Model the fold of this input.
Amino acid sequence: MRWFVIFVMGMGLLVGETAGAEPIESAQIPDLTASLKIPAGQNFCGEPVPMNNPDVRERFERELLLTLWNRPQVLLWMKRAGRYMPHIERLLKENGLPDDLKYVAIAESALRPHAGSSRGAIGFWQFVRPTGRRYGLTIDDRIDERRNLFASTGAAIRYFKDLHQELGSWTLAAAAYNMGEKGLLGEILAQDSMNYYELYLPLETQHFLFRILAIKLIFSDPQKYGFNLSKDDRYPLLSFDRVSLECDRETPVRLVAKAAKTRFKAIKDLNPEIRGHYLAKGEHQLLIPEGSLKGFQERFSELLKAYAEDHKGRIYVVQRGDNLSTIALRYNVPVNALLIWNRIDPRAPIHPGQKLIVHPGD
Done:
């Protein structure tokens, strides 16, 4: 009984029943029934949504309710939109594509560069490897441009242009983006219909466009759905300077960070396409914190020169009986540091004669 009383008292505090309690946000959340009063004239990229069709209305309402149920997720979408969406909107406009396509990125990845799916799709626009490479993205063990906002948005724009040219509809283009154009074309031929709303498609694709429409509806009038964000509530716009680097050898990302007078994490966050701790030999286009461009190239050249000199005396030749643990102990460094410095797969054995880079610890 004692625990029951405490529980009831706690619930009273939660719902604001204690005298003088401030109203909590839940009291400001619009009634769900009122939220389902979807305004007339809904469209995707200017193509009307047939809301007079009961099945279409039900599918729209379902996705709207499910989206509104996950309010923390919607709130994060809106906050991240402040960081990324102006860049996406600009690229869509410059390429003559409808602004509504920006909501596809939210539906696909929640605007997370490292978002991944069980099918192997990665990044802001959720490209699988073959499609990403087909549209010009570099995807290998060193660089994965699916995680790069600008490269992946450019690839998505090229893909959407091809889909629209082939299908003649942005609605069908969005469906094909989700399930693949060959799969959609097969269903169009089998069902003898070019109308997305009449096609029986995989359930994910049947929901996909309505999820986009629900996101668009909420973003178009967030206060109506209880999201009262000011400009300061949103994450600041992604701002940066661009640099071109010519690396004559494999180069640690930390040198880029030092040249930019920032930290390793800042460079990785600005360039999520970089996999691991090193840049491969060759030319690279990178983002660095805004305002750090002045003097960057001079600092980077000096750091690169010093790094090359330092590495001349940092080579250890593996002897018979060695393993990573014994080498790490000998030089007072973590095993993981040896793995990173030498880009070693922890599952692969080392062998006598192999050369390792080692920086002795203090």
